[in-house]
């Protein structure tokens, strides 16, 4: 009930209180006089009878006392029931805050967050019918169109509200959202906003990048929209695939940006359930495999640096600086041998101690969560695409490039990548062999099967639900 009171409407767009209008830095003369008027109706029940009471005060913004003090006086004077007091306090705060631009924005943001919470929590139908009134979706889109950097948090809240609305009634509301956002058109508002966001993010535009909070909300909205058939068809129609693949090809050194690449891969996974032609026309499969190779190469470098750091004497690092010039492949091979010797080595107490210390080092050195999520999304895509008939003509030669090398490293370094990626990489190979048994010999020639068999025998991978 408290959240319901917080989402109380300010009068609606037709009455001059649209969300975008309220977010504008305007003088009070541009708003209706009722903007600062407190009008609150409630009923007091005495036995079988009920009596209506009305609290009406104009220009509440001129009252110097705090909202709490005004609330206390009104409750005492009008004997407001406990169940109505939150609604009264919300109206008092709104009337007092409306003339102050900063506080007015806070009221708008609180309202949007309250709507999102009520929708996600699946409040009662009577509340939801009043909650999602006609014109709300258009008002939310209008807020996103306001060009003011001060509205970042409000725009993010508006996107979250739209995302919540998608899940409430799905098909009935999703068509209204698609129409209001212009999602089915290449030059629609949302597709243009998304392309602008991506181009500025990857440095191909002179515009200032959107704040990360807003960009994250935008990607989340598109992902949830694509989860439904109507939304996925709209994303196909607006030609968003090229933009998503640009993000996948983007090589950012900022680890926090990896989440956007991950979301893009997941969006691609959803969209290709409906349309593969556009994806393949832009060599999407090679794009994902190359990204997988790029991330694995970064992981190799991290493992290489860790292994070199372990080899250097603690008291005399400078003496062995020349060892840094050794090729990563050579150090990686040495690291593999040392790891296997720790596992298969002596059974005496000294050998067990070395193996224990080696396992501790491998636990301390592991892939970062952002990169693990990206690799997982790419492997999940490959896992789905290999048995899919729509990809049959493109999957056959997928193991001719860098993919086997990337999979070998993930499987061979299970301690670093973790059990989830280890099993996913193994499943990708298993599915490929099942659907292309004639190409098993090529995998054997590239030692991929040897790595899998060795890992199954040697590696101590934690048990997961997979």
Major β-sheet strand ordering: 1-2
Overall shape: it is elongated
Q: From N to C, what is the helix and strand string?
A: HHEEHHHHHHHHHHHHHHHHHHHHHHH
Low-confidence blocks of residues: 1-10, 314-363
Secondary structure category: mainly alpha
Oligomer: single chain
The number of distinct helices, counting runs of at least 4 residues, comes to 25
Give the number of DSSP strands: 2
Compute the average pLDDT: 82
Our measurement of the CA-to-CA distance between the termini, rounded to an integer number of angstroms, reads 42 Å
Strand content: under 5%
Proportion in helices:
55-70%
Radius of gyration: 30 Å
Largest sheet: 2 strands, antiparallel
Question: Brief overview, please?
Answer:
With 466 residues, this protein is mainly α. It has 25 helices and 2 strands.
Can you tell me about this structure?
By secondary structure, the protein is mostly helical. It contains 25 helices and two strands. It has helices spanning 2-6, 19-22, 67-78, 82-97, 101-120, 125-131, 136-144, 152-169, 171-181, 189-201, 212-226, 229-237, 241-249, 258-271, 277-281, 284-311, 328-344, 349-364, 369-385, 392-395, 403-412, 414-417, 419-435, 440-445, 448-458, and strands at 38-46, 49-57. It has a two-stranded antiparallel ribbon. It is elongated, with a radius of gyration of 30 Å. It starts with a helix and ends in an 8-residue tail after the last helix. The model is unreliable at 1-10 and 314-363 (pLDDT under 50).
